[in-house]
Amino acid sequence: MVSLLSLIHKFPYSCIKGNPDTEVTGVVFDSRKVERDCLFICIKGAAADGHSFAAAAVKSGAKVIITEKDLDIADEVTVIKVENTRYALALISAAYFNYPSERLKVIGITGTKGKTTTTYMIKSILENAGHKVGLIGTIEVMIGDQTVKAGNTTPESYYLQKYLSEMVNAGCDTVVMEVSSQGLMLCRTAGILFDIGIFTNIEPDHIGPNEHADFDEYLACKRLLFQQCRLGIINRDDRHWEDIIRNHTCDIITYGFSEGADLKAENMELIAERGSLSVKFQVKGIENMAVEVDIPGKFSVYNSLAAIAVCHHFKIAEENVKEALKDAKVKGRIELIDVPQEYTLMIDYAHNAMSLKSLLSTLKEYHPERLICLFGCGGNRSKLRRYEMGEVAGSLADLTVITSDNPRFENPQDIINDIKTGIKRTAGKYIEICDRREAIRYVMEHGQKGDIIVLAGKGHEDYQEIEGVKYPMDERDIIKDILNSRV
Description:
Blueprint: E1 2-3, H1 4-8, E2 14-17, E3 23-24, E4 27-28, E5 39-41, H2 54-59, E6 64-67, E7 78-81, H3 85-96, E8 105-110, H4 115-128, E9 133-136, E10 140-143, E11 146-149, H5 157-169, E12 174-178, H6 181-185, E13 194-199, H7 215-223, E14 229-235, H8 241-244, E15 251-256, E16 263-273, E17 276-285, E18 289-293, H9 298-314, H10 318-327, E19 335-337, E20 344-348, H11 353-364, E21 371-375, H12 383-396, E22 399-402, H13 412-423, E23 430-432, H14 436-446, E24 452-456, E25 463-466, E26 469-472, H15 475-485
Parallel strand pairs: 4-5, 5-6, 6-7, 8-12, 8-13, 9-12, 13-14, 14-15, 15-16, 20-24, 21-22, 21-24, 22-23
Antiparallel strand pairs: 1-3, 2-7, 9-10, 10-11, 16-17, 17-18, 19-20, 25-26
Helix pairs in contact: 3-5, 4-9, 4-10, 11-12, 12-13, 14-15
């Protein structure tokens, strides 16, 4: 049992009925998980409003209700009214798990692109230097030796605090986490004072009915991180960097290629070898060193600079930084796959026009004999995305192989036809192979010396979703099967 007053004392509230000087067995925000004498918080979600389930929660045994609205609740139940139940959930969860973030160095990364790769780079360097680091992100949550598949980029505040508590118990001293604009807007990180906040970049994305109303709101949500951290590490080359730090309450250091950056990259060199693409550059400013990263492209330089800035704050030795950056890998993010052929094969999560354009533009800078792009689009999603991705692939790839992704409840051929609408706006060559396994087999069997072949869209995913069912599909396994069938 835990005191209700100890959970709610850090934010304003009104006790509408009952007695706040009571005890509860746990904290619940899903009415299906209510237990006897628990505290139930009414959260308004995209699909349902928890206030509608308050009476059912009481019937199932909830002792306390936290609400934003006036509710008709039985007299024996304590009702606490607050301005924002999501904010209340975050602070209640932090108190319930005994404020675990206060016992960790917390590093948060926000931005449209680069969050995932940068988190793994930072984790790699800090662990190379002897730290024990937890990770929370788009792909997974890593707690010591335990790995949990991620649901959201930034988990709901209750689960976020639970993971942080488990990291403390596992002996972690640091956590590095992706902080999405949605996570900031929905108060998932409320109550956490980040030691370091990082801004990678921002471009129009996540704008729509269930996300952000417009780009200004998207930017404003990203900006919130720099009002709840001690040190902000900012990409000075992004044209919105000054907007991001408006009203900041933290110290600021910057990185980039810009002359005024505190941590500056110079003399970038792209290196292409059989089955390998990397980048070398010099770091100048608050750190001075030569760096090589086995992840291609200019954006890998930006991600590395952000990681190096963190390590400067942690006073990590240069040799640890260089060694860890050389070995840093991220599943499904320009993940190079070792094959015996004379082409370069990779898997990447690029699943919208912006990320696909960035990826293909980067790969073209390595001057392949041919750039071959295999991709599909998800079902029950915007048709505009399909047109745009088709146009991007047709404009940049020498050959596009249009296939299936996660068709969900749509006919895969209908999705392919939409992609073709976009690609036909270009002069790009393409073929269509609906079965993704057969499409992968095709590009591998027709790959030539000097080609770069990218399998885009699935990335770290190990399934294909068809009519509500997730069937096992890991592109790494498909590649192995194809190679083994040739022996």
